Amino acid sequence: MSQRDYYEVLGVSKTASSAEMKKAFRRLAMKYHPDRNTDGDEETEHKFKEAKEAYEILTD
C-alpha cells in the first residue's frame, strides 16, 4: 500500500478527528471482519486488513 491514501481507505476527510477515524474504522471492521464473513473471501479479508492498516497509521 505504498501509494494508498489512508484517509480514502477509511472514507474520511484529511481533516477528520481521531473520533471520526475511529468511527469509520469500526464501521468498516464490522462490515469486513473475518469472523463476520465466514465465506473465506480473499477480497473481504484484504479490505479488512487495509482498513486496519490505515487506522493504525493515521492514529499512531
Order of helices and strands: HHH
Tell me the fraction of residues in β-strands, as a range: under 5%
| Mean pLDDT score | 91
- Give the structural class: mainly alpha
Number of helices, counting only DSSP H or I runs of 4 residues or more: 3
**How would you name the oligomeric state of the polypeptide chains in this document?**
single chain
CATH homologous superfamily descriptor: DnaJ domain
Report the span from N to C terminus. Answer: 17 Å
CATH architecture annotation: Orthogonal Bundle
Describe this entry's structure for a reader.
The protein is mainly α and 60 residues long. The chain has one domain (6-59): Orthogonal Bundle (Helix Hairpins). The protein contains three helices and no strands. It has helices at 6-10, 18-32, 42-59. The longest helix is centred in the C-terminal third of the chain and has 18 residues, at 42-59. The mean pLDDT is 91.
